[in-house]
From TrEMBL:
Residues 3-100 form the DUF2023 domain. It holds the Pfam family DUF2023. It comes from the Bacteria. InterPro entries: DUF2023 (IPR018594), PG1857-like_sf (IPR036780). This is DUF2023 domain-containing protein. Transmembrane segments: none annotated.
Length: 114
């Protein structure tokens, strides 16, 4: 919960517009109570029985994620992954390199598949 509280602090202080927080499902109820009390938009993705991702932050950012309309971050295209990384405030140059690597990996997989 300490990391969640820090993420909440960063959002409320305007340091980040969107947060991706990974946690155990047992924490979900308490976290959603805090987000709802503060009227902060969020989405939840079930990763496994022991892990969920909670995306929370600005309404516009959450709306973009909803428009992408995928229930699993591993299903994101290179472009969607890039957009998410930028919205999360990740380093732009590293996101560019990640995008290039992602596209190269997919191209290599297509060559192997024939």
């Amino acid at each position: 919960m300490d990391v969640f509280c820090h993420h909440l602090y960063e959002y409320e202080k305007g340091l980040r517009n969107l947060i991706l927080h990974t946690t155990h499902p047992d924490n979900k109820k308490l976290m959603l109570k805090r987000l709802n009390n503060k009227n902060i938009a969020y989405l939840i993705y079930q990763v496994s029985d022991k892990k969920i991702n909670i995306l929370f932050g600005d309404d516009h950012c959450i709306e973009v994620i909803k428009k992408i309309d995928k229930n699993d971050l591993t299903e994101y295209t290179a472009e969607e992954d890039f957009i998410l990384g930028i919205m999360l405030g990740y380093d732009r140059l590293k996101q560019c390199q990640r995008y290039i690597d992602f596209k190269k990996e997919r191209a290599d997989q297509e060559l192997i598949a024939g």
